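Researcher: Good morning. I'm working through a list of sequences from a screen, and I'd like to move beyond sequence-only analysis. For each chain I'm collecting a predicted structure so we can compare shapes side by side. This is the next one on the list. No need for commentary yet; just the structure.
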Amino acid sequence: MAPKVIEDRLGHTNVGFTMQVYTHLYDEQRREAAPCLAELIQRDKAS
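Model: Good morning. Structure tokens for this chain:
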């Protein structure tokens, strides 16, 4: 579901607040993101 929809349904005035409170990062997500980030950093260094 889109964060803006959740913001509206909860009555928040700012989607940033909604995302800060209701978004969580789990260890598995961190592990999955690491190779992608490393690739982007290496690509940037090569430029």
